[in-house]
Design a protein that fits this description.
Helix content is 42%, strand content 12%. By secondary structure, the protein is an alpha+beta fold. Strands 1-4-2-3 form a four-stranded mixed beta sheet, with helices on both faces. It starts with a helix and ends with a strand.
Length: 199
């Protein structure tokens, strides 16, 4: 084989390897979110926000029912204040169109529980926020995101014994996209953990 052809072949092979490795690296980065990482991201609450899950649910529901902002790209966030609070986005896996958490996500839920139980986190209350991408019907997405947020809260309370007084859950569906520029991107299905208040 001629030297120029070999170099081009090697470069093409390297390019393909990098294209395959990048999504794997991103998945591994998500998988190695440690309890300490969570604590450091969530423990930085400077001002307490007056957030009530029931009010947020009602605001999202009212907007869906009114049919305003039919185009996902044009929707302002329902609760812009959530972006200003300490938060982290996590990829919790569910069965398709279901609030049933897949078994491989329980390790991540255990890390969340460990973070909540850390002495530095005991003074705080949290909001679990469910989201969806903008495929399907808005009403369905809103309901599904609420059921998923409730499911995570239930596991943290019943399985991991976190006080229910410290955790609220709200589903915002596609009404507050995590990646507004790409409404159908899978990242919009991630769950947010938000430090909402001091107890």
């Amino acid at each position: 084989m001629q030297p120029g052809k070999k170099a081009r072949r090697d470069m093409a092979l390297l390019t393909v390897c990098l294209m395959v490795a990048m999504p794997v690296a991103a998945a591994l980065a998500q998988a190695v979110v440690t309890t300490e990482n969570m604590v450091s991201q969530l423990a930085d609450l400077e001002t307490t926000a007056e957030l009530d899950a029931a009010v947020l649910r009602q605001q999202a529901s009212d907007r869906v029912k009114s049919k305003v902002d039919a185009v996902a790209l044009k929707r302002p966030p329902v609760a812009a204040q959530l972006r200003k609070l300490p938060h982290l986005n996590l990829d919790i896996q569910f069965n398709p169109d279901s609030p049933v958490i897949r078994p491989d996500s329980y390790r991540m839920l255990g890390r969340i529980a460990d973070a909540f139980a850390d002495p530095r986190m005991l003074p705080y209350g949290f909001l679990i926020v469910g989201h969806t991408e903008s495929t399907g019907k808005r009403e369905y997405n809103l309901t599904l995101s609420q059921r998923r947020a409730d499911s995570i809260r239930d596991v943290l309370v019943t399985t991991f014994k976190i006080s229910p007084k410290r955790i609220q859950a709200v589903g915002l569906g596609e009404e507050q996209l995590l990646d507004p520029e790409h409404p159908k991107a899978p990242v919009n299905q991630q769950i947010q953990i938000v430090t909402a208040r001091k107890l």
